[in-house]
Design brief:
This is Coenzyme F390 synthetase-like protein. It comes from Candidatus Parvarchaeum acidophilus ARMAN-5. The chain is of the alpha/beta class. It has a domain at 132-297 and 328-345: Rossmann fold (3-Layer(aba) Sandwich). It contains 13 helices and 14 strands. The protein has helices at residues 4-16, 23-31, 36-48, 55-64, 68-73, 77-84, 89-93, 97-102, 131-146, 167-179, 198-217, 236-239, 254-264, and strands at residues 113-116, 126-129, 158-164, 182-188, 221-227, 242-248, 267-272, 280-285, 288-292, 298-305, 308-317, 320-325, 330-331, 344-345. The strands form 3 sheets. The protein has a 9-stranded mixed sheet, with helices on both faces. A 3-stranded antiparallel sheet has the order 10-11-12, covered by helices on one side. Helix 1 (4-16) packs antiparallel against helix 9 (131-146), helix 2 packs antiparallel against helix 3 and helix 9 packs across helix 10 (167-179). The longest helix is centred in the middle third of the chain and has 20 residues, at 198-217. The protein is globular. The two termini are 33 Å apart. 42% of the residues are buried. The mean pLDDT is 90.
Length: 349
């Protein structure tokens, strides 16, 4: 069985790996996933540096008295997270919030890939991702898909990428390449999408749904990606023309995935996506959904320190460093497809 870390080394690093000061740190954490702390330390030091850092973290280091020495001396993730503190999402909500405060020095957003929030959890926000984390995310999805479906059944078929413009589409171009599929761009603007009135929403989604239906009629679609909210607009008989359907969405749960699988008799794969962290592919275990992150760029920290539960999402990338609370119900069981990587069970927002 091909597992995530093996696929990263085989398919991703030769073409998409870093060729800079973080190359050795990335190789180390892939060889030693239990040493995730070391990776986050490197990213933290990168972002507080006056030479390479981002304005938000440089200012935070001054206000919170964060130093390289204190980062190096942190013995646990809890210690490091307490030292760094959370990122302020309110800063991302302002116009050009990422470019002004979270974009590291020396990087240009025009050379990165945009990712917008649709407004599920408040005002729309924008961040940018580099190609390396997007390739890791494609590998994450690749592993989840081939653990349930033969890659030969998908080869040379169409991959319909229903989703946001920018980072999401680039990620699915790479996924199509990994699977030997034909990538079809069905993208649309998603910034603040869920805050739009129904009529305006359908102005945007109507043409995408129509084109999707026409492509499904051709009966040569191997993989369709999209959100659970779009499924009601597509006839169940047309969904039966797809080998695999990969769905994301905050309203999904194990019962919904199981019901849809039975209705269309197709493999339905859940994905827990964020605009700021890349995809975490999911597995249905009875009525539970277990998600495994795009390690080490996106990771979930669940701990119980001094009787208090700490649940965080950490985005640790050269172009983006975020620490924030996350609604996590529990840690998922070990999965052979994601050896050495801890997942989460039944998260919600």
């Amino acid at each position: 069985m091909e597992d995530y870390l093996s696929i990263i080394k085989l398919k991703v690093l030769p073409k998409y790996g870093y060729k800079n000061q973080l190359e050795d740190a990335l190789l180390n954490v892939l060889d030693n996933p239990d040493d995730y702390l070391s990776w986050v330390k490197e990213i933290a030091k990168y972002h507080i540096s006056k030479r390479t850092g981002s304005e938000f973290w440089i200012n935070a280091a001054k206000e919170r008295k964060i130093t390289v020495n204190k980062i190096n001396k942190s013995k646990t993730m809890d210690e490091l997270l307490d030292l760094m503190g959370d990122a302020d999402y309110d800063e991302l909500k302002q116009e050009l919030g990422y470019e002004k405060l979270f974009l590291p020095k020396g990087m240009k957003s025009e050379k990165l890939y945009r990712s917008d929030s649709s407004g599920t959890t408040g005002p729309a926000k924008t961040v940018y991702h580099a190609i390396t984390p997007l390739a890791f995310s494609a590998a994450n999805e690749y592993v989840g898909i081939i653990s349930n479906t033969s890659a030969e059944d998908l080869k040379d078929k169409k991959l319909l990428a229903l989703g946001p413009k920018g980072a999401y589409q680039e990620e699915h171009k790479i996924l199509a390449d990994f699977l030997g599929m034909e990538y079809i761009d069905l993208s649309f603007e998603t910034k603040g999408l869920k805050n739009l009135p129904p009529a305006k929403l359908m102005e945007i989604l109507g043409p995408i749904i129509y084109n999707t239906k026409e492509l499904l009629k051709e009966k040569n679609v191997g993989l369709m990606t999209g959100s659970g909210e779009m499924i009601p607009f597509i006839d169940r008989d047309l969904l039966k023309n797809v080998k695999v359907i990969k769905l994301s969405g905050t309203g999904m749960n194990g019962a919904y995935i199981d019901k849809l699988r039975k209705e269309v008799n197709r493999n339905i794969i859940p994905s827990y996506g964020h605009f700021y962290g890349k995809s975490s592919i999911g597995f249905l275990d009875e009525n539970n959904l277990d998600y495994y992150p795009t390690f080490p760029f996106t990771n979930y920290i669940v701990s119980n320190e001094n009787g208090e539960s700490k649940e965080k999402m950490v985005i640790a990338q050269p172009e983006l460093f975020l620490i924030h609370d996350e609604d996590i119900v529990s840690v998922s069981p070990e999965n052979p497809s994601f050896k050495g990587i801890k997942g989460i069970r039944n998260p919600h927002r």
